[in-house]
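Working notes for the structural subgroup meeting. M.R. asked for a predicted model of this chain before we commit to crystallization trials. I am recording the input and output together here so anyone reviewing the notebook later can reproduce the run.

Input as submitted:
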Amino acid sequence: MLISILLICAISFGGLALTYLFVSDERFMWRLAAGSIVGTSIFGIVCFVLASLLGLNAATSAAAVAVAMLPLIILTRTPFKREFKHDWAKAKGKFQGGNLKRFTGFGYYAFFAIVFWLFFGQAMYQTDAGIFTGGSNNLGDLPFHLGAILGFTDGANFPPQNPSFAGARFSYPFIADLVTAGFMKLGADVRGAMVIQDFAWAFSLLVILERFTIKLTGNKLAGRIAPFLLFFSGGLGFVWFAKDYWEQGKGLWEFIWHLPRDYTIGEKFRWGNSLVVLFITQRSLLLGMPITLLVLGHIWRVFAPADGDAIENKGADAPAITALVKPFIIGLFAGMLPLIHLHSLAVLFVVTGFCFLFRTEKWRDWIAFGIGVSLIAVPELLWSMSGSASEAGKFIGWNFGWDKGDANVIWFWLKNTGIVIPMIAAGIYLVLTFAKAGDGEHSMKAEPMPDARSLLLFYIPFLLLYVVSNAVKLAPWEWDNIKVLIYWYVGSLPLIAVALAKIWESGTKFRALAVACVLAMTLSGGLDVWRTMSGQNKIRVFDTDAVRLAEQIKAKTPPNALFLNAPTYNSAVVLTGRRSFMRYIGHLSSHGIDYAEREEQTKRIYDGGGVAELYLRKNEIEYVLVSPEERNSLGANEEFFKKYSVIAESGQYRVYKIKN
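Returned structure, recorded in token form:
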């Protein structure tokens, strides 16, 4: 893991230097968190460009690191150098001396660091019995990401094709996985790279969300509350937990160490905890969300000029042009999102559109931002759409109530999110109330309280995301609307957090109420996070024979070989980086790919006979895998394949070479 730590630090400091070009009032920790995300994104995009031209290797990966670190030159200029030294000295000062305030702050970040380290350490691990995951919802997603990563490192997959549907453009945002592959080319191991990156991105999200909330609410306590509500999100599942505990007859301590199920996702729940169902499974979102919040923070600065670091466009032309550099740079960051997390770009499009309508007098800033976005996003979108097998028509359709099924929509949202929606209403009420009252001074107050009207107007596009996601299916699988709904939740967090902060600050007798509300919104999610980070889930993804077979395949087949295997998520071919004719239909359908013809042809080939020969030649299949999955689900006719040579074998796994 040491190599991964050194690499993430190197590109993070490059990104940190860039922050001095677009913001001047942030502390060192925020700059380092933003730098980690910006540096990672630059590294990934440069890797993509260089690898598409020259292939992914140690040289191109090292060149991408150098480009990501290039902004360090900025800190050689006197004004930026002075500001950096000031920020560094201030950061060091926080570790000197000892008082309750500093200890509490350190404990806050240390708590999340421990949670993230233990949690993401369960995303993937290997034993003598095979490759496992501790994520209850990571069984299908881990092989998908491994297939992408190993396709880059071992499959020469450049320009990227969809490893699960050979011949089609890889339109799924893949930069997060390409970053892992780039680290591996520089000597990191796959698990170490994934754990370090996921940890760094999650911690960066924590810091950026905290500061985003403070900027919107002017309340430091609200900033500290918001990350708890995100990372331990959940609904009323704790009620079912209490029922399970009462019925099973074990002691509480023993029961907590042997939880029977998740309490935010499953048969009864669909709004899963963010860590359990999103950040461990969808690495693209884990990288995309902090970038999005970084951009949203700048949009807020433009939208609410009362902010201390507001962008001014007054006076002569020259100062105005200089000021427009900031939104242009932020636009460049947002422009990287199509290959990082496309849904995040769509969210930014909606929020920016509304903010433009409410602040048309800032048109210069919006245009500069739009130019920056377009310069990178348009080429990326054109590239990803060209040759893609995804059908746009499958992504839109009417669907009331998101994933409620036959449930009553009010009960569905109450059960899944608990008191979240009432707390949003409370936040709106309290923001208006304290604004009218002039907002008295509180010990945890960190910024001037923004104009209530600006804050509520800024929330409108997030509310619209919620309404649209409950009326329209935005992906072939309706549950995938959660990729948009999570931004409604994140956009609501400042209102919820400031309501809780105001309740806490209203006096001792109200503090128990504030704590109870926080527990109601985090207890279910906390149980699910604990179940994962404590290693209670031991889910085998690949058995030992699959791992051994994959090593043989890598040694005996060319990197771009085309395999036929059962359309399952955990085929041994995944571990080789080689292309598959088709893989898991759950992934293909969720990406809007029409797989029916290939699925039928796959069945016919495994049946054997004359038509099998025809389909093998037509699709230029080079190797066929026959394993327990092909025998059980497809009834593989091994007598048919015996005329071909076996080039790899382990236990019940065999690979037949079709083309000589």
